[in-house]
Design goal:
alpha+beta, 22% helix, DNA-binding
Length: 272
DNA sequence: AGACGTACCTGACCGC
DNA sequence: TGCGGTCAGGTACGTC
């Protein structure tokens, strides 16, 4: 689920509730998710939260003592904030704040992770060291992507989901960006002309930005921190719409194929 | 290097 | 009602 727009929406919600607050204590209800919880996590107490931010699909909670809590939502993770939460199955971590609010990390599939590291070594962390540029920042541009795509035989859809190429783009927004830029997802990345790469760059930017504005896409598990759904799923052109009417052709021409073991949706008439 | 497949895990849904 | 199969927003790792 959570691709960049969902993570960004969660970060903005967490920022409201957490920035400047003190962590009273942290409760863990199991020993691990995708990775073991670090032993230091449950000892956090009376520490001020300086800021909440995002890198790729990771949530970063900065602490005054020079450390950072890293959270990844995996496929089914959600973080919600409430002053009187009803306990739910799969609540794995609860951060209690001095305000009385509880920040709950719930993740049925447990593909998510939590780590606690020194902020100064974040960039060298094994989860971060290989990450490409942020899609909404200047270093992600046509020249950069052209260089990355040069000689690449990988399908362009696989390539834009590769976090070493650009971060934050997952299965939904890859499909939507390729539809918007009129590019066939199966094309070899290295076969794209410069004008096509330019279209792709601006499509990725525009799709992600519009999705953030809509509060993300709610498919199954995803909600914003206040429990509200995201609304971008109503703006999907092709994702999950096999056999349905294409907004471009006005015909039922949307097809589903499999790439890298994942479903890809696209319109063969529009996307060449 | 890069292109694959596989693994991690629960839950929803579908056909029988 | 139950059961097995399939699929789901991500990522790391192994193998060729």
């Amino acid at each position: 689920m959570p691709e960049l727009p969902e993570v960004e929406t969660v970060v903005r919600g967490l920022e409201q509730a957490m920035q400047g607050r003190i962590i009273a204590h942290v409760t863990l209800n199991r020993k691990d998710l995708r990775l073991p919880f670090p032993p230091t996590l449950k000892t956090l107490r009376d520490i001020k939260i300086t800021d909440v931010s995002r890198r790729a699909k990771y949530i970063l909670i900065g602490l005054k003592d020079g450390r950072t809590i890293i959270v990844h939502l995996g496929m089914s993770g959600r973080m919600t904030v409430s002053d009187s939460p009803a306990p739910e199955k799969h609540d794995h971590m609860i951060i209690v704040l001095d305000s009385g609010m509880q920040v709950i990390f719930n993740d049925p599939r447990r593909f998510g992770l939590v780590d606690l590291v020194d902020t100064t070594v974040l960039d060298h962390h094994r989860l971060f060291s290989h990450l490409g540029p942020e899609p909404l920042e200047a270093p992600f541009n046509t020249a950069y992507l052209a260089e990355k795509f040069k000689g690449k035989k990988t399908a362009v859809k696989i390539a834009i989901m590769d976090q070493r190429v650009v971060v934050g783009v997952g299965n939904i927004y890859a499909a939507e960006s390729l539809f918007e830029s009129r590019i066939d997802p199966s094309r070899a990345a290295g076969s794209l002309r410069n004008d096509e790469i330019a279209r792709l760059v601006s499509a990725i930017r525009s799709v992600l930005q519009r999705a953030i504005t809509a509060g993300g896409s709610s498919l199954r598990d995803y909600v914003q921190t206040d429990g509200e759904l995201g609304y971008f799923q109503h703006q999907w052109a092709v994702y999950g719409k096999e056999g349905q009417t294409c907004p471009s052709c006005k015909k039922p021409c949307i097809v589903k194929i499999t790439q890298g073991g994942r479903s890809t949706f696209y319109c063969p008439e529009r996307q060449k």
